[in-house]
Amino acid sequence: GQNIDQPTEMTATEGAIVQINCTYQTSGFNGLFWYQQHAGEAPTFLSYNVLDGLEEKGRFSSFLSRSKGYSYLLLKELQMKDSASYLCATMDSNYQLIWGAGTKLIIKP
Amino acid sequence: GAVVSQHPSRVICKSGTSVKIECRSLDFQATTMFWYRQFPKQSLMLMATSNEGSKATYEQGVEKDKFLINHASLTLSTLTVTSAHPEDSSFYICSAREQGELEQFFGPGTRLTVL
């Protein structure tokens, strides 16, 4: 079967660092995406990993371990505007996205 | 980056009426478009995948006669919710992908409320 797990909710402090984990079991794998979604808005693309390792893009980094079926999104120097849901999605053998339920990130001053 | 628009952004209708939602890729040719539905505090649920010029592929449990999808051109796909009922109230989001590319670009979504 196909399954993606990520925490439902996380809380962090402005200026701090937070890591959002995602574990997956999918039939076929063509990469893993992270999207950010603010309430009432459509998702926006953050990162794509298909090879093992860390991809850094400004304050956001994403890591993938294919052998462990594991990824994380690392957010540094948190800002209040980072309060949003973060969606982990894998691309299966048919190039369709399989979505996790999302992690709601709450940033406190 | 690529831009996808959706219209309308918000619609309120009476039960039993039909509602059409348009999804347009503004600066690229979308050979594949996806329609999602998202209920409050839940993740995206893929409803159907449409390829330009061919019939849409619906996910299990999605009624093709109720949710009519047309992808007549490389820049436009429409979703028509026929005989809408209150349980169809949801956030409908489209995304588009260019041929040979992996990334999907999302429209801003349409909030449908059926009274």
Q: How confident is the prediction overall: mean pLDDT of chain A? A: 94
Give me the oligomer status: heterodimer
Beta fraction of the residues of chain B?
over 45%
Helix-and-strand structural type of chain B? mainly beta
**How far apart lie the N and C ends of chain A?**
41 Å
Can you describe this structure?
The complex is a heterodimer of chains A (109) and B (115). Chain A is 0% helix and 57% strand. Chain A has no helices and eleven strands. In chain A, strand 4 and strand 5 (44-49) form a beta hairpin. Chain A is globular, with a radius of gyration of 13 Å. By secondary structure, chain B is an all-beta fold. Chain B has no helices and eleven strands. Chain B has strands at 4-7, 10-13, 19-25, 30-38, 45-51, 57-58, 67-73, 76-81, 90-98, 105-106, 110-114. In chain B, the strands form two sheets. In chain B, strands 2, 4, 5, 6, 9, 10 and 11 form a seven-stranded mixed β-sheet that branches. A four-stranded antiparallel β-sheet of chain B has the order 1-3-8-7, with no helix packed on it. Chain B is globular. The model of chain B has no long low-confidence stretch (mean pLDDT 92).
Question: Short description, anyone?
Answer:
The complex is a heterodimer of chains A (109) and B (115). With 109 residues, chain A is mainly β. Chain A has no helices and eleven strands.
List the helices and strands and how they pair.
The complex is a heterodimer of chains A (109) and B (115).
Chain A: E1 3-5, E2 9-13, E3 18-25, E4 32-37, E5 44-49, E6 53-57, E7 60-65, E8 70-75, E9 84-91, E10 97-99, E11 103-108
Parallel strand pairs in A: 2-11
Antiparallel strand pairs in A: 1-3, 3-8, 4-5, 4-9, 6-7, 7-8, 9-10, 9-11
Chain B: E1 4-7, E2 10-13, E3 19-25, E4 30-38, E5 45-51, E6 57-58, E7 67-73, E8 76-81, E9 90-98, E10 105-106, E11 110-114
Parallel strand pairs in B: 2-11
Antiparallel strand pairs in B: 1-3, 3-8, 4-5, 4-9, 5-6, 7-8, 9-10, 9-11
